[in-house]
Specification:
This protein is α+β, with helices and mostly antiparallel strands. About 55% of the residues lie in helices and about 20% in strands. The protein contains 4 helices and 3 strands; from the N terminus they run H-H-E-E-E-H-H. Strands 1-2-3 form a 3-stranded antiparallel sheet. A hairpin with a 2-residue loop joins strand 1 and strand 2.
Length: about 140
């Protein structure tokens, strides 16, 4: 499930492993195990949605008949709605189109991540978001 091909789940699991090393008592916490399982499952579901959207982009042809390739991932909030889309560019004529993602996976993942973060904060005083961010920065600066 958490492989380097799914970077988000990989990062989540890495950060949780670090917290588990620092706070060994977490190993016996059923509630933690449950929240973690749910988050990793939702991260995987979200990842599958992204993969499916990319597969759709690659199967779609441009109006000119040329092949499309995903070039960007647009992610944000517009008028209170969270949106998530892939921007694809035609390799022949260079025109771009965007493809909307289904939103369920993203919303479930975000909800599970917040539930786990709140629980860790409340029960152990651990800042999970901070650990995940520092893990991300460490990895982008120092390589593996
Ligand atoms: Zn084209």
């Amino acid at each position: 499930m958490a492989t380097p091909e799914n970077p988000m789940a990989y990062l989540l699991e890495l950060s949780l492993r670090r917290i588990e090393r620092e706070r060994p008592e977490i190993a016996n916490d059923q509630k933690y195990a449950e929240l973690k399982g749910q988050l990793l499952q939702d991260a995987d579901g979200h990842f599958r949605e992204i993969q499916a959207t990319y597969a759709t982009v690659l199967k779609t042809q441009c109006n000119c008949g040329g092949p499309l390739e995903p070039v960007d991932h647009d992610f944000g909030r517009s008028g209170g709605m969270i949106y998530d889309s892939v921007v694809a560019k035609c390799r022949s004529c260079g025109s771009t189109q965007s493809f909307q993602f289904p939103k369920e996976g993203f919303i479930s993942e975000a909800r599970s991540a917040m539930a786990l973060r709140d629980y860790l904060q409340r029960t152990y005083g651990v800042d999970y978001a901070g650990v995940a961010m520092s893990e991300l920065q460490r990895r982008s600066v120092g390589g593996s």
